[in-house]
Design a protein that fits this description.
The chain is α+β, with helices and mostly antiparallel strands. The protein is 19% helix and 20% strand. The protein contains 2 helices and 5 strands, in the order E-E-E-E-H-E-H. It has a 5-stranded antiparallel β-sheet.
């Protein structure tokens, strides 16, 4: 975490106008709009910050390879072997 481009810890004091750069799953850039003296919930804390972060990247997921119908029961031994072949990376 950095405050005004200087290394900082979680207990670093901030003031209105300070810029906070953090990486929490993705880069976040926040500006302090108001200082809160005591602990508050996340919605109230979000109101005291201005978010200048780039938008979150869109993650495209691959479709599921094999889906069994609901209520079709337990797979047979033959079906389990076919599933294993689908899931196993090719050597």
């Amino acid at each position: 975490m950095r405050v005004n481009r200087a290394a900082a810890k979680g207990s670093t004091q901030v003031k209105v106008g300070d810029r906070i750069d953090a990486f929490v799953g993705r880069p976040r850039i926040l500006e302090v709009a108001a200082v809160i003296e005591k602990r508050v919930g996340a919605p109230a804390a979000a109101k005291s910050m201005i978010d200048h972060s780039p938008p979150a990247p869109v993650v495209k997921r691959l479709p599921r390879v094999f889906v069994r119908e609901a209520g079709s029961g337990r797979p047979t031994k033959r079906e389990r072997r076919e599933l294993d072949r689908l899931r196993r990376p090719s050597d």
